[in-house]
Amino acid sequence: MLQSFNKQLQKLELQLKQCNYDCKIVTQNESNSLYISWQYSDFQTCVEKDEQCLDVVHNRAPIINIREWIVYSKTFLVPVLYFQVYCNGHFVSKLDELEQLLNCHDEHLHEAVGMGDHPIESGICWFIHPCQTKSFFDNWSLSINESRYLDTWLSYIQCKFAFLCVPFYESRLHATKQQSELQG
Amino acid sequence: MNKQSNTRDLVWNGSLSISVTTESSPLCYMTNIPRLSYIAFILDEVRKILCPNEKLDNCWLEFEGVPLKSHWPIGVLYDLYTATDPDAPRSPVLWKLVLHYDNFPASQLIPCNEPTTFRTLFFNALKESDYVRNKSASYILSLSNSATEELWTSIQKHDFEVYQRFIPRLRSAKYDQLPVRIYITPDTPVVQESVSCKETLGSMLHKTLPKLFPSQNIAVLAKAIVHGISIPLSTNMNLLNQELCYTDGFVHIVIHML
């Protein structure tokens, strides 16, 4: 059953690599997951004077690194997005801090995002609750064997958690553009 | 008292003696804590006695340099980190832990400073275990607010009389699949599986961890420990579910190398 899903993960990995994202397929207990690491860009400008008293614009935004994993849940039978956020090298473990850093203020965030044991590594991480995802796919009658399953799931996640889906959005945009150029 | 309820009583009443010290205090916190309980339930009490001026945010317990996860059952932590062989004769043990209140290992431990944090975690686990059994978290989600409070309080206070009212639905024998968590070493990720009730422990472990359990029938390289007891590989998974399930609905199995 997961053969098609694994192929879709591999296709996504390729698309992400074409956009120069650091990503790889991780295999554990005969299951494949997609890992991606990227830097969240934000700009908080400040203007300072240099030695010649000229104005220089600096970006004083904190350095935010995001590590994400797309893992197929054997419990809920849907993909789950797990993620870790690091701010200036420090692991973000409070939801309020996450909201502020990623500018993702949403009253439903506290219900939608949880923290738990990392499914691939030995630490902890955030994850997006998968319970609603199952209902979404049931309503669509979309099978995991269909080639657009992973893309559909990404679109669903992106609607609610765009701040986590930047690489996926970019890579799909890039792939669409490439396809248009080929057809054109 | 029938055999089944006797086993459940023994499991419910299983406890560990622990002592907690900290660098800055001459005091020592000592208690018996149920194996089914969690560090999250006692951390604030420990803090108030040993370092009342420190914030709960920054507090964490450690054993031999390893941070202890406050959201794992304490019996699992003991079996995993001490690797005490249940089959070897030994004297009663006092598990010595250390309290820290700085350098919180944020990527390893979930902070339990908010009262709702651990409760949310616990109920997420319970919903997931319910989902495995029922193909939906319908039982847990259908609990009224007062029933949810009752269940939570019974777990916090370790009140079997109240908790047992929830057992029939939580661990009914009619389910096909059981949720299992397997702990191999302290630094490997937990293996979580949904397993068939009809399997034996040996067949399940042989399928899930074939390198550690090359045989379904004989523990050649490793053995399975649940609640500090070495479990024969011939044990039926449904029996583990009925008798040895934890309060979060999972059967937690620690693997010890032979």
TrEMBL record, chain A:
Gene Ontology annotations of biological process type: autophagy; protein transport
Swiss-Prot/TrEMBL keywords: Autophagy, Protein transport, Transferase, Transport, Ubl conjugation pathway
Family statement: Belongs to the ATG10 family.
Name under which the protein is recorded: Ubiquitin-like-conjugating enzyme ATG10
One Pfam family in the UniProt entry: Autophagy_act_C
Residues spanning the membrane: none
Listed GO MF terms: ubiquitin-like protein transferase activity
Keyword Electron transport: no
Gene that this polypeptide is encoded by: atg10
Source organism: Schizosaccharomyces japonicus (strain yFS275 / FY16936) (Fission yeast)
TrEMBL record, chain B:
Signal peptide: none
Membrane topology: Peripheral membrane protein
Domain Autophagy protein ATG5 alpha-helical bundle region: start-end pairs: 117-170
Name the record gives this protein: Autophagy protein 5
Taxonomic lineage: Eukaryota, Fungi, Dikarya, Ascomycota, Taphrinomycotina
Function summary: Involved in cytoplasm to vacuole transport (Cvt) and autophagic vesicle formation.
Start and end residues of each Autophagy protein ATG5 UblB domain: 178-255
GO CC annotation terms, alphabetical: Atg12-Atg5-Atg16 complex; autophagosome; phagophore; phagophore assembly site membrane
Family annotation (InterPro entries): Atg5, ATG5_HBR, Atg5_HR, ATG5_UblA, Atg5_UblA_dom_sf, ATG5_UblB
Coarse class of the protein's main subcellular location: membrane
Keyword terms: Autophagy, Isopeptide bond, Membrane, Transport, Ubl conjugation
Record-stated family: Belongs to the ATG5 family.
